[in-house]
Write a structure and sequence with these properties.
- The complex is a heterodimer of chains A (158) and B (163).
- Chain A is an alpha+beta fold.
- Chain A has 2 domains: 11-57; 70-144, Alpha-Beta Plaits.
- Chain A is built from 6 helices and 6 strands.
- Chain A has helices at residues 2-5, 14-23, 35-41, 45-57, 89-97, 123-137; strands spanning 61-68, 76-82, 102-108, 114-120, 142-144, 148-149.
- The two termini of chain A are 25 Å apart.
- A 4-stranded antiparallel β-sheet of chain B has the order 3-4-2-5, with helices on one face.
- In chain B, helix 2 (25-33) crosses helix 3 (37-50).
- The two termini of chain B are 13 Å apart.
- The chains are: A alpha+beta (158), B alpha+beta (163).
- At the A-B interface, helix 4, strand 1, strand 2, helix 5 and strand 3 of A face helix 2, helix 3, strand 1, helix 4 and strand 3 of B.
Chain lengths: 158, 163
C-alpha cells in the first residue's frame, strides 16, 4: 500500500506544470475536451493525453476523470473517529480497514487518533458498520456526518 | 436524493477508474457502454446539473508536488454565524475541504472542519492563523490534527449491480 501511494521522481517541464494546474479546473463536456488546453499549451491533443498518462503512471496525478458526489448518487458518507490506545493501534487498524465500507483511514496526532471515512449505500448502513466496529474493538466510534459543505475547489500549484 | 437510472449507473461505473486518455474520450466511452457520444455527453451534462458529477478533472498528488504537510483544522464556531463564515473559509485558496459537522461534546466541541495543505507545518500554521483572524470572536476554541500516517486509501466506489 505504501508503495502505491509513493510518487516517482520524474522531471516536470513547464508544459507538465501548466497542465497539472489547468486540469484541476475541470474540462468542458464536449466531444474533444482536450482541445482548448492543447491550444493553450501549443501541443497536440494526443500529446496532452500522453502527458496525463505519464503523470498518472508516475503518481504525480492520482486520478483523471469524472469526479462524482457520492452523496448525490444516493449513497451515504461519514467521517468517523476513534480514540485508540497505542498498544492496540495495529490490531484496531486491521479491524477497521477490513471493512470495505472504510475508504480512507488516517492516523492523526490527537486523543482521537484514528480518523476514517465510511461510504455506504444508506445512512442506516453507516450506523450499522460503526456499531459492528465498536463490538469488534470494544471502542467507541464517533460519527461526524457532514451537515453542510463549503465547497469551492482547490488547486495545488505545480 | 437523486435517482440514478441504470444507464447513468453504467456510465459512472465505467468511469470510476478514470476517463479514456484519447482525444475523443466520450466516443470511446460510448462504445464501451453501447451508446452514442451524443447521448453520453447529454447524460453527463444532466448529471452535472443534478450535482452528481462535479467536474472532469485531475486530482494531483499533494505529496509529489511538495505539499507534504496537511492539517485538519477544527473550530468551535457560533452556530448563528457558522454558515456565513464557513463559506468564507471554504473560499480560501489553501483550504481543500470545509465542512460543518455535529459536535460530540464533551470529547469534541468543534463544528467547523477545514483541511489545510502546505509545504511545511510552519506554512500550515500560518494559514491556520489566517483562518483564526477571519473567524474572530465567533470562534471559541480551535485545534489542529496533523496526519501522521495513511492507514488506508482506496477510491470511493459505488457498488456494482445494486440500486
Amino acid at each position: 500500500m505504501a508503495n502505491k501511494l509513493k510518487a516517482e521522481h520524474i522531471e516536470l517541464d513547464e508544459i507538465d506544470r501548466h497542465l497539472i494546474n489547468r486540469l484541476q479546473d475541470g474540462l468542458p463536456l464536449v466531444s474533444t475536451p482536450f482541445e482548448t488546453i492543447a491550444a493553450e499549451l501549443g501541443v497536440t491533443q494526443k500529446d496532452v493525453c500522453d502527458r496525463i498518462e505519464r503523470l498518472l503512471a508516475a503518481r504525480i496525478l492520482t486520478r483523471f476523470g469524472p469526479f462524482y458526489d457520492a452523496a448525490a448518487m444516493g449513497g451515504a458518507f461519514c467521517l468517523c473517529a476513534m480514540a485508540v490506545p497505542e498498544q492496540s493501534f495495529e490490531r484496531v487498524t486491521e479491524i477497521v480497514n477490513s471493512h470495505i465500507e472504510v475508504a480512507h483511514n488516517y492516523a492523526r496526532d490527537h486523543v482521537l487518533n484514528m480518523w476514517f471515512v465510511m461510504a455506504t449505500e444508506s445512512a442506516e448502513q453507516i450506523e450499522a458498520v460503526a456499531r459492528k466496529i465498536e463490538s469488534e474493538t470494544g471502542l467507541s466510534v464517533l460519527l461526524f456526518p457532514k451537515l453542510e459543505e463549503y465547497f469551492v475547489g482547490f488547486r495545488v500549484a505545480a | 436524493m437523486t435517482r440514478i437510472d441504470a444507464f447513468d449507473r453504467k456510465l459512472i461505473e465505467a468511469t470510476q477508474a478514470g476517463l479514456p486518455l484519447v482525444p475523443s474520450p466520450f466516443a470511446v466511452l460510448a462504445e464501451e457502454v453501447g451508446s452514442t457520444e451524443e447521448h453520453v455527453l447529454s447524460r453527463f451534462k444532466a448529471l452535472q446539473m443534478q450535482g452528481v458529477l462535479r467536474r472532469i478533472a485531475a486530482a494531483p498528488n499533494h505529496y509529489a508536488l511538495g505539499m507534504s504537510a496537511n492539517g485538519m483544522t477544527v473550530w468551535d464556531v457560533d452556530d448563528d454565524q457558522v454558515s456565513q463564515l464557513g463559506a468564507k473559509i471554504g473560499a480560501l485558496s489553501f483550504v481543500t475541504h470545509c465542512y460543518l459537522r455535529p459536535r460530540a461534546r464533551p470529547a469534541w466541541p468543534y463544528n467547523l472542519f477545514a483541511m489545510v495543505h502546505g509545504a511545511t507545518r510552519d506554512e500550515v500554521e500560518s494559514k491556520r492563523a489566517e483562518i483564526s483572524v477571519l473567524l474572530g470572536d465567533a470562534c471559541r476554541a480551535s485545534d489542529i490534527l496533523y496526519s501522521t500516517r495513511i492507514l488506508k486509501k482506496t477510491g470511493l466506489r459505488i457498488s456494482t449491480g445494486g440500486s
